[in-house]
């Protein structure tokens, strides 16, 4: 029986990946003294944005981080709302007593900016953010299990990338592929071995409705 739904953020809750890239470009290019193509920025993802800035502008870390957070907030109108259906889904889960958690690679401050922008912070019983040292989602998922005394099979992790599927596997929980973002690659998610894959949020909710009734 599912007792907890654990969500990724970027590409799962909202279409924030383009925002992240745009904020990095605006904040870091002046410090790096060169143009940063999307591929170079995305290649640094895994650590939180603090880790990304250490890679892209190690000589100007403090300035880079401050500028990034300012740009991230200023540019958030690029994606002013979460994906259609997410607030209603969170409300529906909360009404049924399901534990809702967030495990993201985002840093604490950028995550707070987005949760505030979207007005959904109140839904999450626990938020685990990223580390500048590198990917740590399996540890975040396990922290949720430990906090709420959950067995791995009582939770699911919902994310939009192959690394999210791998993180769920590493933590021993079922992996649900959120394939509703423009940036999601459904074939890659299938090859990664997701237990379930949903192209739309309504399809995911329908599956949850059936699963929670068992």
TrEMBL record:
<keyword id="KW-0378">Hydrolase</keyword>
<comment type="pathway">
    <text>Organic acid metabolism; glycolate biosynthesis; glycolate from 2-phosphoglycolate: step 1/1.</text>
</comment>
<dbReference type="GO" id="GO:0008967">
    <property type="term" value="F:phosphoglycolate phosphatase activity"/>
</dbReference>
<dbReference type="InterPro" id="IPR023198">
    <property type="entry name" value="PGP-like_dom2"/>
</dbReference>
<dbReference type="InterPro" id="IPR050155">
    <property type="entry name" value="HAD-like_hydrolase_sf"/>
</dbReference>
<comment type="similarity">
    <text>Belongs to the HAD-like hydrolase superfamily. CbbY/CbbZ/Gph/YieH family.</text>
</comment>
<dbReference type="InterPro" id="IPR041492">
    <property type="entry name" value="HAD_2"/>
</dbReference>
<dbReference type="Pfam" id="PF13419">
    <property type="entry name" value="HAD_2"/>
</dbReference>
<dbReference type="InterPro" id="IPR036412">
    <property type="entry name" value="HAD-like_sf"/>
</dbReference>
<dbReference type="GO" id="GO:0006281">
    <property type="term" value="P:DNA repair"/>
</dbReference>
<dbReference type="InterPro" id="IPR023214">
    <property type="entry name" value="HAD_sf"/>
</dbReference>
<protein>
    <recommendedName>
        <fullName>phosphoglycolate phosphatase</fullName>
        <ecNumber>3.1.3.18</ecNumber>
    </recommendedName>
</protein>
